[in-house]
Amino acid sequence: xxEGNVLLxxxxxxxxxxxxxxWPDSDKVLASGEVVLSVMDEDRHIRADELTYRATxxxxxxxxxxxxxxxxxxxxxxxxxxxxxxxxxxxTFDFFGNTVVSQRRTSLFAESGWYRGxxxxxxxxxxxxxxxxxxxxxxxxxADTIDAFLKNDILDTLFLTANAKIQLRNQRETDxxxxxxxxDAGFINLAENMLSTLKMNGHVNLGFEQADTFAELPxxxxxxxxxxxxxxxxxxxxxxxxxxxAAGKGNSRFLGQKKTLWFLDDRLVRLRLEGHALCHYSSLVxxxxxxLDLSGDILDLFFEDNELSQIIAGGNVSGVYxxxxxxxxx
Length: 330
Description:
Structural class: mainly beta
């Protein structure tokens, strides 16, 4: 039994603690008080209040304020938990209770999970948070299970399984755009820790909110792409009815097999409807009250300041415009 700033080490590992008890017959080591176990050639460390280790079994447990870390250059993957089971000679952890996994601008929260080399699974109300530029742009997501895949020890791809939900928030000065994606399963790609693509599959729904503008688009799948870190386009596939309310100036309902939205500086500038496309628009502006029904193979809706400004239709086009007190034109 050793007391006070104890260090045990061999060619591969170093164990530091205030108190270390060794049982040579059973090859068991119990360390407590400011415990640090290091795998020196891989720059991996486990810190805890108490640690039990069996060298011949290559297995151990850590309890109390546990922090496991692995450094790769200037980046560190950090796992914090109430307790941890580990295999020192392998990148194998099972973590339990109040878990936080963090790297760069990404944080993953869960009640338990495991880590195996380049795969990490979070279980028990897992949530992930990512932010850029002091949370001006941020992403929050949750699901029943979240699987994180690492590329060169860097968090790269997240898979959300069952009851997936992603919320994306973009802010420019006082203008805030919020997107909510819901579905059976989701996918987040963080190439070089920047949002690259988002996907959602299975009974999906997209909600969009900016100032007094609201939109909702259900479908079968959603694909979101980013360009230079900014929202570029959004595609919703699946025949369903979507709605768009433009700051109290007009309401739109539309149908299409495929709906593509393009953005400029996080503002909607164009919406394309493809495949049996239909659009019904009702103006709410005084002296401009009227209803427009338009259909075609393709409909392109253009927006300025989130207000519908122009519609271009192509292929088997038909439409009806009805204005109060003036009759209708077809």
